[in-house]
Design goal:
Number of helices: 21
CATH topology of the largest domain: TIM Barrel
Largest sheet: 8 strands, parallel
Structural class: alpha/beta
CATH architecture of the largest domain: Alpha-Beta Barrel
CATH class of the largest domain: Alpha Beta
Strand order of the largest sheet: 4-13-12-11-10-7-6-5
Number of strands: 17
Helix content: 40-55%
């Protein structure tokens, strides 16, 4: 009942409606009794302000919350200390650094991202990291850093940007948000991951490069029973806009969980994109049905690559049991089939909704997962055939540099691009009441997100972040981000001790896991590598 009432009369317009009502009442008293002139001017002015708020295109908050939305910005500007609190501080309600959020906002809006008075970080705090610079800085002509994704079996390699939009589905995000992300990706020539909700009409509208993510629900390539359909896959995969195929094994924020989009949220548009009945629960099982063993998984990858016309095909996972990851690698060795890429999703990654225990305590963080994947591929001499992407709270140029130092070839960001769209971390994603129109299917709420304006912000955020990365690479005396290694990053482990990441994150020598003896390697290899089997995800 309340939802229906809110549709007929959005409660968020109450402040504007009250201003209009009071303006009319004060006009009545002014005409009838000659009093109330100042009140008439005040409420008329506020009514005009509210009307303007609903018509302007720069702020989604003001479009959705006319008049009263100004209180948020007023509090930020009371004085520098108050603004600092709102934009910089961390608390339990907003688990992502607000300094990172304000950085994304500034870059998206084209505002300065420079700061006076030096660092605001505690450089003596445990965990503080920095990039070693050179006394002979380099000069790089362009910040358009690229990586070629495609192994020996790939017929259509993709020249990807080192910074792309991570997986976010239509349904989790609004139609306007999808349009703005894809339009920004088109303008900046970088990739937009569809998320497991498949390719919607809104993904196709602006023609930006797509990475089609296929989850356990096989949305967009499923038959009537929910199983994988080769014919439907081929129809989408061979679209020129689709550049890569990504099988989702697990998601960092809720690995091994699966999910359900309740029937009332399965609109006609979502049903069309996913290939499911409108109004019925849309289920993503915890596991895939198209394969049950690592070897079957490799064969599935090869089949998808063939059906797509030879496009780069790989998978995304959050590292869990290390022996299961080792089983996948042993299946690569036994079948001779390798994915073109692997995206490692860290447990610190975000989601629209997940149990607290999963978001906080399930899955390996990006550093540990990424290093394990990189080292294992080096240890079996497959690293040069397989590119590695990284995702999980990556937003700044230093985040990108650090991920590459640990073992990534490129990075994906979800939250950073959501900030570019105007996300204020209201944490209402699962309610459908997102105040900025980013993560809602409410047609009125998402109208607040003006696609042309936000597409420019998405483009700006990408370009300015890569420009910052260019400056970091130059400062280190290098010529491409791929040259950054764990020897360039330093971490403070306590107040009086610092270590290179290279010493904190040991390397596996090339081919070491192919030797008869693996003595001297980390315990994770010594214990689990010999037990892993290519024909099952368990241990021998």
């Amino acid at each position: 009942m309340l939802d229906r009432l809110n549709t007929l009369y959005p409660v968020r317009y109450t402040a504007l409606a009250l201003c209009v009502l009071l303006a009319l009442l004060s006009l009545f008293t002014l005409v009838g009794f000659g009093v109330g002139g100042p009140w008439f001017l005040l409420f008329t002015g506020l009514s005009v302000l509210g009307w303007w708020d609903m018509r302007q295109t720069k702020s989604s908050v003001l479009r959705n919350y006319p008049v009263i939305g100004h209180l948020r910005f007023m509090l930020e500007k009371i004085r520098p200390e108050m603004r600092q609190y709102f934009l910089e501080s961390d608390n339990e309600a907003t688990p992502f650094s607000r300094s990172q959020r304000s950085l994304a906002y500034a870059r998206a809006k084209g505002e300065t991202d420079k700061r006076p008075l030096g660092t605001q970080l505690d450089v003596k705090a445990d965990g503080h990291e920095w990039l070693n610079h050179s006394l002979a800085p380099s000069h790089i002509a362009s910040h358009d850093f690229r990586v070629t994704i495609g192994g020996p079996a790939c017929k259509q390699p993709y020249e990807a940007s080192v910074f792309n939009i991570s997986a976010m589905s239509f349904g989790a995000l609004s139609a306007n948000a999808i349009q703005a992300l894809n339009a920004g990706a088109k303008r900046g020539n970088f990739a937009h991951d569809t998320g497991e909700g498949s390719i919607s009409a809104w993904h196709r509208l602006n023609g930006g490069d797509l990475i089609w993510e296929i989850g356990s629900g096989y949305f967009g390539c499923r038959d009537e029973t929910g199983h994988f359909s080769e014919d439907r896959f081929k129809a989408n995969a061979q679209d020129a806009q689709v550049k890569m195929i990504e099988i989702k094994l697990s998601q960092g924020a809720k690995p091994g969980h699966g999910g359900v989009l309740p029937g009332p949220k399965v609109t006609l548009e979502i049903a069309a994109a996913r290939g499911v009945p409108m109004g019925q629960d849309c289920v993503s099982p915890a596991a895939h049905s198209a394969f049950a063993t690592p070897m079957e998984m490799m064969q599935f990858i090869a089949r998808l690559r063939e059906l797509s016309g030879g496009k780069p095909t790989g998978f995304k996972l959050c590292i869990g049991h290390p022996w299961e990851w080792f089983s996948i690698v042993k299946a690569m060795l036994e079948t001779g089939i390798t994915p073109d890429f692997i995206v490692v999703d860290g447990a610190e990654g975000g989601t629209g909704a997940a149990p607290l225990e999963f978001t906080d305590h399930v899955g390996a963080p990006l550093q540990e997962g990424l290093r394990l994947v990189h080292n294992t591929l080096v240890g079996v001499n497959l690293r040069d055939r397989i590119k590695i992407g990284a995702s999980g709270k990556i937003i700044s140029a230093f985040d990108i540099a650090r991920a590459i130092a640990i073992g990534a070839d490129w990075c994906n960001s979800a939250r950073g691009f959501m900030f570019a769209l105007g996300c204020i971390q209201a944490q209402a994603c699962h309610t459908g009441q997102c105040p900025t129109g980013v993560s809602t299917q409410d047609p009125l709420r998402q109208q607040a997100l003006v696609v042309p304006d936000k597409a420019v912000r998405v483009f700006n955020f990408h370009q300015r972040t890569l420009h910052a990365l260019q400056e970091l690479v130059q400062a280190a005396g290098l010529h491409h981000p791929s040259e950054i290694t764990a020897h360039h990053i330093v971490r403070r482990v306590n107040q009086n001790d610092v270590r290179l990441l290279a010493t904190l994150l040991p390397e596996v020598p090339a081919g070491a896991l192919l030797q008869d003896s693996i003595e001297g390697l980390q315990n994770v290899y010594a214990y689990y590598w010999p037990q892993a089997r290519a024909d099952q995800f368990g241990v021998a």
